[in-house]
Amino acid sequence: MRLEPIADPSALRLIGLPLAALALTALVGMALAALAGGAPLTVLGLIVSGAAGSRFALLETLNRATPLIFTGLAVAVAFRARLWNIGAEAQLYAGALAAVALGTGALAWPAPVLLTAMAGAAALAGALVLLGPVVLKVRFGVDEVVTTLLLNFIMLLVVSMLLEGPLRDPMALGWPQSRPLPPEARLPRILPGLRLHWGFALALIAAVATWAVTSRSTLGFEMRAVGLNREAAAYAGVPVNRVLLKTALISGGLAALAGFSEVAGAKGSLTLDLSPGFGYTGIIVAMLALLNPLGVVVAAVFVAGVFVGADSMSRAAGVPSYIADILLATALLSMVAAVMLTRNRIRRG
Amino acid sequence: MPLPADAPVVLRIAGVSKRFGALLANDRVSLELRRGEIVALLGENGAGKTTLMNVLFGHYVADEGVVEAFGRPLPPGQPRAALTAGVAMVHQHFTLADDLTVLENIVLGAAPLWRAGYGRTTARARIVALGERFGLEVAPDARAGDLGLGERQRAEILKALYRDARVLILDEPTAVLTPAEAEALFRSLRLAVAEGLSIVFISHKLGEVMAVADRVVVLRQGRVAGSMVTTATDRQALARMMVGAEIAPTVASETPAGPVLIELEAAHAEDRGRTPGLRGVDLVMHGGRITGLAGVSGNGQAALAAIVAGLATPCAGRLLIDGTPVGAGWSPHAAMAAGIARIPEDRQRTGSIADMNVAENAVLEAYGGRRFSRAGWMNRRAAEAFAAELIAAYDVRGGEPRTRAGQLSGGNLQKLILGRALAPAPRVILALQPTRGLDVGAVAYVHARLLEARARGAAVLLISEDLDEIQALADVIHVISAGRLSPALPRGTAVAALGGWMAGHGFGADADAA
Amino acid sequence: MEILEILLSASFWAAAVRIASPLIFATMGELICERAGVLNLGIEGIMVAGAFAGWLAVYLGLPLWGGVGVALLVGMAFGLLHGGLTGPLGLSQHVVGLGITLLATSATYYAYRLALPRVTTPPRIEPFQPAPIPVLSDIPLLGPALFTQTPLTYLAFATVAVTAFVLGRTPLGLAIRAVGEHPQAVEAQGLSVHGLRLGAVVIGSGLMAVGGAFLTLSAFNSFFFEMVNGRGWIAVALVVFGAWRPGKALLGALLFAGFDAFQIRLQPLAPGVPYQVFLMLPFAFSILALVVMSRQARVPAALMLPFNRGDR
């Protein structure tokens, strides 16, 4: 068999195939529910209502989507330049570390200044964490997939070490946890009474800014050229290595903002379980969004909804909440396959 | 060579059609091949020759029609079945894995997979014997990546003979050979035919078709335009049939030479694996002159072009522009700023980005300039307006500014690249294989534009494997061989003389030792 | 002095070989995939699935070797998915690989929760026991290190020998190497590119899963979450370190494991240093190895390039 590009795919293909991917995901979910002894449709319904069925559920989903928007943007930016940043998890923790170090440093700065400084420090830390593997890549040709992956493990150990050392909260009774951030180092709620902190707004701003840069700026143009055809880009005079390094700074910085937003917005302190794999999930978000920064927002809300919905369903129906990860893996694989088939048809030869 | 009229038909293609999207690449093509016969499949680029052979060999499945070998139909889409039936193909782009030895490349797929070994000793003996029998000697234990182009060609044919092929399909086999190597290849083919093999020889070169084939089948726009015995026709008739019209030869009128614009002085470049770099190249290019660089590709053209294009600097020696040597800041940008336009060898891989649209490709070299961006933000409207200008001025068909560049045909893509390069009215034009793979109309168009640039005083460096093209256009000819440059040869230098330089004769002791 | 003592102790070398065993399986699995031109980032998840499947099978009553077989089959099933999506469908090997890691890991955890609802400590099984090889195990130092291991460790070493033999000496191995170098050449010689790649990915993934099963059936006696803990990614690094050659990759795995065994023994000797620093060393070592080796390693020419019939 052979894939043949389709010049102008029909609307049926463009809409039908992604829908089929979603349907497959739902089917897998129903089969898994049945395996666990649940009623398939009820379980599916519980996931949906748990994600968006109430004001509370919806806000929970948006809160959960906040770090995913950042990591999704980080991955999307990197992947557009075909820079395989699988280390958003490490960059997230680097950002959280920087934010907590600054925020608990007893600086007598007014809240806006302190928060801005924390965000800046976080972004810088994350950018530097990704800069390392990318320098190794452009300088020595070291594949960034493995180095960024391995850095995730190293960074978690660094966090663990600091939480048991200099950053440890003496009041936490042996639990590895940082001192809590003081109120002026916390992101306030967007509206009083609304359980949604400014991290979400920041994520939306980041998405729009990232969109503007990737689709309207010369840097975005260069990133796309480098990603789509490195050889042609270099020939035309695009400074490939410099573009990759800039991409690394942006991508690492975005991922780190997820860490900042989580400690300053959601959690108030740094623990070892700050991120249940937001960095890895960012890859799913970015791919589902087809690497479009605005699409990342939608995809992040969808992914967060699956997680939140599955948690709530699990409490009600007893089906293990790991179903969420399986659904997302299925959605990811079937969606990339669907996108491939919207652009190509399979022929016998 | 007289061929008994009753020689049995070994291969029959009947009514084969193959469609790719909107393009009908083969339209009810039929063809017969008899035992002991060499049939040339002649046609210009894009006429459907390779598609037809890919259908025959099983790379593609035909939409309609049948292929029969030795009286039995070949199952569609199975190269293995074709090989088993005794039909083998030598591809235009070599199919040798560089990191494997010649022997390994040859026995690949020939021995059953589920064996403990592949019988190196017997295989080696057979390869050596076949090589001697057909004049195709290659060292069986050499790494394929270390072979020269002529040796690679021989290894490719050995692959077919090793599998007892009775029908051999050769797709543009001389494209990468020196005239002498091509002659040797023809001798081997005649030996093979004398032993009863049959050969389909794909080509767009009239001279070699006349020299080697018993019969010629001409393809034009996917259809058979005619079929005749070689002795009963001539080049003019074939050319007419191939193109469908009379072609006027390109004529370059005399113009005065301008000042020296660009020079290489004893330039050296390092080898890159199999492809040689440069070993002391001196080259002077005047405005208003087309300097032709002839030679089989892989002899240092890439290294020389990389230096002029701003991708590399000589590791010894100098590049001078207007008499001033370029320094450490030499880059594609610096080259363009110095007025050098670049037309790369591989328009799909280096010249364009298939997944970007026409407008984006049009500004790929100039997006940073004031016309297309301000303070780091792109001006898409300006890019699209520019693309529309190029489309109109350079006759780019089948695309709007927002069409994906990958959808353009090779000729139209080349016109777009040509337009992009020539739009800033460059003083120097570096053209690498600018007409490779183009049909006659597009070739004439590219030639006309290059001559136009010469007429307004630009220096053109035309690097081409096509001696006809070099002879038609170049005011001065250099031959490049193993990283060395021949002295400047005048327009009208005979092919035989050029061929001698291409084979490495005349360069002195250093080159001969290498 | 103490360092010398560690290096001369038989238990250190025995531990190194034990730690190396799962890595050897996984590295050979990845190496086979990559020689065929397919980067398999599903490795981490496939190891998790293999560890669990093998353990569960034994827990449910199968013999130990039955557990190894089940792990192999589960790994092959994920390999089939990977190979199908990256081969004929031509999807990005990066994305599919990471997707499979997520799928295999989460499916494993889900299955674990279904199979063992509400357990706090996972039940244990009786794992493989060391089977000293007569005579050879009496050699000082080398004997306890190499010849007093469990049968699964011997199998790991045998896997290297078989992989090296098949890749280097047989027509099948030649075809696999060729498909990772120049798939068009393989197609032109009448072999199926997709078939060969799929086969290599399926076999390779099976080996990865057996590497995972080593953890539950030989190294430990139970299944824990996070027990694979990046070993898959390290195997990917070891393939580069080994320059895509089985023998060198084995050496790399042993070196890495020796390093790991060494840092565990070093910890009590440096009480002032946080233990995390020691745990970091193997990962840092892997990155360093990549930097050193990447300059000279010759990558299979068609690695990560999808193949489509007729494109040339």
Question: Which protein chains make the most extensive interface, counting residues with beta carbons within 8 Å of the other chain's beta carbons?
Answer: A-C, 49 and 48 residues
Could you describe the largest sheet of chain B, including whether it forms a barrel? 7 strands, mixed
Structural class of chain A: mainly alpha
- Secondary structure class of chain B reads alpha/beta
The outline of chain A comes out as globular
Low-confidence segments of chain B, given as residue ranges, are none
Features:
heterotrimer; B: 514 residues; alpha/beta; 7-stranded mixed β-sheet; globular; C: 312 residues; mainly alpha
Summarize this entry quickly.
Chain B is of the alpha/beta class and about 525 residues long. Chain B has 17 helices and 23 strands. The mean pLDDT of chain B is about 90.
Q: How would you characterize this protein structure?
A:
The complex is a heterotrimer of chains A (349), B (514) and C (312). Chain A is mostly helical and 349 residues long. Chain A has helices at 11-35, 40-52, 55-80, 88-103, 111-140, 144-164, 198-216, 218-228, 230-236, 240-267, 278-288, 293-317, 323-343, and strands at 2-5, 344-347. The longest helix of chain A has 30 residues, at 111-140. In chain B, a hairpin with a 2-residue loop joins strand 17 (373-374) and strand 18. Chain B contains 17 helices and 23 strands. Chain B is globular. Chain B has helices at residues 49-57, 79-84, 102-107, 120-134, 149-162, 179-194, 206-212, 235-243, 301-309, 332-337, 358-362, 380-393, 410-422, 440-455, 467-473, 495-502, 509-513; strands at 9-20, 23-34, 38-42, 64-69, 72-73, 87-90, 167-171, 198-203, 215-220, 223-229, 260-269, 278-286, 290-294, 316-321, 324-325, 340-343, 373-374, 377-378, 428-432, 459-464, 476-481, 484-485, 489-490. Chain C contains 13 helices and no strands. In chain C, 69% of the residues lie in helices and 0% in strands. In chain C, helix 4 (64-86) runs antiparallel to helix 10. Chains in contact: A-B, A-C, B-C. At the A-C interface, helix 6, helix 11 and helix 13 of A face helix 5, helix 11 and helix 13 of C.
